[in-house]
Design brief:
Blueprint lengths: L3 E5 L3 H12 L3 E6 L10 E4 L1 H9 L3 H7 L1 E2 L6 E2 L5 E3 L10 E4 H11 L5 E3 L3 E7 L2 E6 L2 E5 L1 E4 L6 H6 L7 E12 L7 E5 L2 E8 L3 E9 L10 H9 L6 H7 L6 E7 L7 E2 L2 E3 L2 H4 L8 H18 L3 H30 L2 H13 L2 H7 L22
Helix pairs in contact: 1-4, 1-9, 2-9, 6-7, 9-10
InterPro entries: FAD-bd, FAD-dep_Monooxygenase_BioMet, FAD/NAD-bd_sf
Protein name: FAD-dependent monooxygenase
Organism: Nonomuraea indica
């Protein structure tokens, strides 16, 4: 089976979906509302499950070329600098860290350039018979399938899932930045009421994120860099230096939200993918990874089922349980790591856990989320 898909959204999930369509011999048109295709955000890590999905898309080598091994899951500290768990010299790590823009760029380079249309904000989606028509600023387009990868505030979800609740605020907020500091191994510092994550990324830089509790969404500060510096300025080195080295205009402040579980990711010949389907908090580092998984599973279903309808049923059946369980786990992890009441008990538990047991849990197959293996895409599409 082959056909034409419209992909709404040109972020990491949308480009992964377009590349997956290319791998199985479909055509795709990516509609991006922004006038220029770029990735918003700072950094991220990708766990083994996502790296296997990137391999199935044919871009593993490119990803490893721009990713940097990170020991963040192995180096757990308290604000005074004490280690709760620590990576040993020479330890392997299962995770790679990226600047979001680097991962986005390599996916963009793998998708045929003439598949991308920018400045194409979607205004309507209409289904008739075996076709789907998308109206957008500048025109309309009809295809066999629509893949909605347009983020947590998805226009397609709002149009076709009108009863779905809007994103819910998780009472957490985060500051993000990238500093020109090289050589950091990655770490997570667990403080009362929040944590600070550090990942090394390409070109001798470090990505950092401070996540903490917030009573209400939308609170912003005239000087975001000064605000986060005041909150973590007394924490151990190199945290103050990371914040100080980050250009003030590059410090990003976001509120953390997720979605209530949807009863289905499919309406007719429209499928939700990534954050449009299952936006989740960043506390398990799985948001982008789950969208890449979605793309591979959807492509495998389209390649393996006799009809688009059957393929979409298979996609929905396979992806909803896994992604919704991952989102629940991320939400609980975030509640736990930002809880002042639970902080002392959590720190004690981590400190007392035998180091070999901790290392086993963060190995490539150390937990159910990371153990996932992608379906194989048809070998005839491999270069």
């Amino acid at each position: 089976m082959s056909g034409h898909a419209i992909v709404v959204g040109g972020g990491i999930g949308g480009l992964a979906a377009a590349l997956a369509m290319h791998r199985i011999g479909w055509r795709a048109t990516v509609l991006e509302r922004a006038s220029e295709l770029s990735e918003i955000g700072a950094g991220m890590s990708q766990a083994p499950n996502a790296l296997r999905a990137l391999a199935e898309l044919g871009v593993e080598d490119q990803a490893r070329a721009v990713g940097v091994p990170t020991h963040a899951s192995a180096n757990l500290r308290t604000p005074d600098g004490r280690y709760l768990q620590r990576a040993r010299p020479g330890d392997a790590t299962a995770m790679l860290a990226f600047a979001r823009a680097d991962l986005h760029r390599l996916l963009l380079q793998a998708v045929p350039a003439d598949w991308i249309r920018t400045g194409a904000e979607v205004t309507a989606v209409r289904q008739s018979g075996g076709n789907v028509t998308v109206d957008f600023v500048g025109g309309e387009l009809t295809a066999d399938l629509v893949i909605a990868a347009d983020g947590i505030r998805s226009t397609v979800r709002r149009l076709l899932w009108p009863d779905a609740p809007p994103p819910r605020f998780l009472a957490r907020t985060a500051w993000l930045g990238i500093a020109p500091i090289a050589g950091l191994p990655g770490s997570i510092t667990l403080g009362p009421g929040g944590y600070l994550l550090v990942h090394p990324i390409a070109r001798d830089r470090a990505y950092w994120a401070h996540v903490t509790t917030a009573d209400t969404p939308g609170v912003r500060y005239d000087q975001e860099k000064a605000e986060v510096a005041a909150r973590v300025g007394a924490w151990h080195d190199p945290i103050p230096a990371l914040v100080e080295a980050t250009p003030a205009e590059a410090v990003i402040h976001i509120d953390i939200c997720d979605l209530e579980p949807l009863p289905t990711y499919v309406r007719g010949r429209v499928a939700l993918l990534g954050d449009a389907a299952h936006a989740m908090s960043p506390d398990r580092g799985q948001g982008a990874g789950q969208s890449i998984e979605d793309a591979v599973v959807l492509a495998a279903a389209l390649a393996g089922e006799p009809t688009i309808e059957a393929a979409l049923r298979r996609y929905d059946t396979e992806r909803r349980p896994r992604t919704q369980a991952t989102a629940r786990g991320a939400r609980k992890d975030g509640d736990r790591t930002t809880s002042r009441a639970a902080h002392r008990a959590m720190v004690t538990m981590i400190r007392l856990m035998p180091a070999p047991l901790w290392r086993k849990g963060i190995a490539a197959d150390g937990n159910p989320t990371w153990r996932w293996r992608p379906p194989r895409l048809p070998s005839s599409t491999r270069p």
